[in-house]
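ingest -> validate -> predict -> emit
validate: passed (alphabet ok, no gaps, 81 aa)
predict: started
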Amino acid sequence: MIAHYELGFTVPQVRARISEEFRKNMHTKDVATIDFLVFKGTCELEEIRNQWKTKPHVLSYFAPPKEKKSDLFSNFFAKRT
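emit:
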């Protein structure tokens, strides 16, 4: 994956990012949700392996998380307190 997409990341960096995704869902106990997550992960892996994703798609996994923009109501209520 690193070579095909010319990512510029090391193997430990990619492994750490994948591990982070697994840890994000480690407390999931619902069997249906676990099955869905396994299916989704399998599809993602196949799409990357077959190079159906473009380089920007793959790089989006490594982008820093975006901050949620606050909407009008949250700004309004934040100013009132």
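The chain has a mean pLDDT of 86.
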